[in-house]
């Protein structure tokens, strides 16, 4: 864990940052390092780092644990950085070394299947308005021939004669500290507690088969990049009658050529000519669904924002939609005819402005200001 960067440093926020500040920093960095936009070799790694930091700091409980323990999992390890995985609890540890009365796991009990993850890339507008589609995933399912037992039809697995169905065997060792009993998975049955002598020809005795499964997915309107959709029971099949795991679909949203998204709001830039900005105009603005008219007041300055209420993204967990924000940018023409130049010189003269050819340069004036002239 020592090579991991501080999550607050990753997002570029202080430890006292609020929820909105953390979300804003995440969205900015996610757009910057998204693999669809950034083709740098380390972009994907940085994107994952940013996503991991946000997942922790956006969850109040996970953030509290992180603030107290950092990257060390308080549920793992003892003392100086020992990080063994004791998923079975302390009862299994004492049972392993001393043969104590810790609870034993039944090797023949139903076992839940593993969860699966599927990364789905969608278009910008598909994320905004939602989408229905079919996906095909490879997964492990219970064998239909033997119904998961692993035994040939008409036969049954037999109880292991070594461990008597417990799935564990004891190894006794005499040490300077006394007689110690160590429990481990049975070497005869591999911890299953049963032996399959006549194996199923379909699954070769494993009780499972690999299949391609087609699943219908409904992506809700307003879903954002990095969101996860959980589909209950669509993961790997369980063992010995156990339930299947879940399928987690991680949404990746492609960038758009014109629109940018921040939360439920949409942002875009629209160019204006000098004449439009100075005299005012009515221009046509594309939105997510249609084109609308926008009135530009006379004297509008470059960088001014206009808002189209309700023209943003449908709220995923609420009613209504966000807004669309339009930033106008005045475009300076790069090629002028002599007539146009003369007209601009005349305009400058009427406005009381000096001709740019005789005006002192901006940088010269800056130098004078620093010198105190």
UniProtKB/TrEMBL annotation:
Q: Which Pfam families match?
A: DnaJ, DnaJ_C, DnaJ_CXXCXGXG
Q: In which residues is Zn(2+) 1 bound?
A: 143, 146, 200, 203
Which regions span the lipid bilayer?
Answer: none
Task: Name its co-factor(s).
Answer: Zn(2+)
What region holds the CR-type domain? 130-212
Q: Which InterPro entries match?
A: DnaJ, DnaJ_C, DnaJ_domain, DnaJ_domain_CS, HSP40/DnaJ_pept-bd, HSP_DnaJ_Cys-rich_dom, HSP_DnaJ_Cys-rich_dom_sf, J_dom_sf
Q: Where are the zinc fingers (CR-type)?
A: 130-212
Q: How is the cofactor bound?
A: Binds 2 Zn(2+) ions per monomer.
Where do the annotations place Zn(2+) 2 binding? 160, 163, 186, 189
What keyword terms does UniProt attach to this protein? Chaperone, Cytoplasm, DNA replication, Metal-binding, Repeat, Stress response, Zinc, Zinc-finger
Q: Which Gene3D superfamilies match?
A: DnaJ domain, Heat shock protein DnaJ, cysteine-rich domain, Urease metallochaperone UreE, N-terminal domain
Xref: SUPFAM superfamilies: Chaperone J-domain, DnaJ/Hsp40 cysteine-rich domain, HSP40/DnaJ peptide-binding domain
Please list the residue ranges covered by the CXXCXGXG motif repeats: 143-150, 160-167, 186-193, 200-207
Q: Where in the cell is it found?
A: Cytoplasm
- The J domain covers 6-70
Which protein family is it in?
A: Belongs to the DnaJ family.
Regarding domains, what does the record say?
Answer: The J domain is necessary and sufficient to stimulate DnaK ATPase activity. Zinc center 1 plays an important role in the autonomous, DnaK-independent chaperone activity of DnaJ. Zinc center 2 is essential for interaction with DnaK and for DnaJ activity.
Described by its record, this protein's role is as follows: Participates actively in the response to hyperosmotic and heat shock by preventing the aggregation of stress-denatured proteins and by disaggregating proteins, also in an autonomous, DnaK-independent fashion. Unfolded proteins bind initially to DnaJ; upon interaction with the DnaJ-bound protein, DnaK hydrolyzes its bound ATP, resulting in the formation of a stable complex. GrpE releases ADP from DnaK; ATP binding to DnaK triggers the release of the substrate protein, thus completing the reaction cycle.
Q: How does it assemble?
A: Homodimer.
Name-wise, this protein is: Chaperone protein DnaJ
Classification from the root reads: Bacteria, Bacillati, Bacillota, Bacilli, Bacillales
From the UniProt record, report the name of the gene that encodes this protein. dnaJ
